[in-house]
Amino acid sequence: MNQARFSSPLLQRDGPPDQDSAVFWCRSSGGFPKPIVSWLINETEQPPEDSVWTQVAPVPDNNLYNVTSKLTVNISSDDSVSCSIMNQWMNETLTSRSSGVTDNTFRSRASEGMWMFSTGLCVAVGIMVGAGVAYQIHLDRIIRKKHKFLEETEEEMLTSKETSV
């Protein structure tokens, strides 16, 4: 295998956002070769080396890699954190950024897209179900009118036979 793109990194924070000490996790999967993981605080400041732990694990049976990186750092709630996954062979860098640490979970663009797609799909299914129910009600009314018409016609025929006899 020559090269494969990593998934967009997912950046998450563990623990309450109001604490000064924070643990951030960055995860990405399915790429080749082994990536370089880097962290930035406020888009310019690199964290101390001993505050970062990174594991790059091969996926069994396909020679791709999954990467998990952990950043433990003291930051204020106004600071931002970003995690980058760099695939040197493809000259590609994927980054997830937090816009302050007050939110407990930071989602990558890919997961935001999935959320929007899922919401749109649910709305579309809801509209289709509503249209189906409305159409079924319409058909039921037509059938009731036909039955009522046939009953009235049958009664008229019976009464006309009785009056003619």
Written account of the structure:
- This protein is an alpha+beta fold.
- It has two domains: 10-107, Immunoglobulins (Immunoglobulin-like), CATH 2.60.40; 114-165.
- Helices cover 34% and strands 33% of the residues.
- It has one helix and eight strands.
- It has a five-stranded antiparallel beta sheet, with no helix packed on it. It has a three-stranded antiparallel beta sheet with strand order 3-6-7, with no helix packed on it.
- Strand 6 (81-87) and strand 7 (92-97) form a beta hairpin.
- It is elongated and about 110 Å long.
- The relative contact order is 0.17.
- Residues 101-107 have low confidence and may be disordered.
Keywords:
Immunoglobulin-like; Ig-like_dom_sf; transmembrane; 34% helix; 2 domains; 165 residues; Ig-like domain-containing protein; transmembrane helix; alpha+beta; disulfide bond
Could you give a short description of this structure?
The chain has one helix spanning 109-164; strands at 10-14, 21-31, 36-41, 52-58, 65-74, 81-87, 92-97, 105-106.
What low-confidence regions span 5 or more consecutive residues with pLDDT below 50? 101-107
**How many H/I helical runs?**
1
Mean pLDDT: 86
Q: Give the topology string: H per helix, E per strand.
A: EEEEEEEEH
> What is the CA-atom radius of gyration, in angstroms?
31 Å
- The CATH topology of the largest domain is given as Immunoglobulin-like
User: What is the second-level CATH architecture of the largest domain?
Assistant: Sandwich
**Beta fraction:** 25-35%
Number of strands: 8
Helix proportion: 25-40%
- The first-level CATH class of the largest domain is given as Mainly Beta
Number of domains: 2
Shape: elongated
What's the CATH superfamily of the largest domain, by name? Immunoglobulins
Largest sheet: 5 strands, antiparallel
Q: What's the oligomerization state?
A: single chain
* Arrangement of strands in the largest sheet: 4-5-2-1-8
Distance between the termini: 95 Å
Structural class: alpha+beta
Keywords: Disulfide bond, Membrane, Transmembrane, Transmembrane helix
InterPro entries: CD80_C2-set, Ig-like_dom, Ig-like_dom_sf, Ig-like_fold
Domain Ig-like: 9-102
Pfam families: C2-set_2
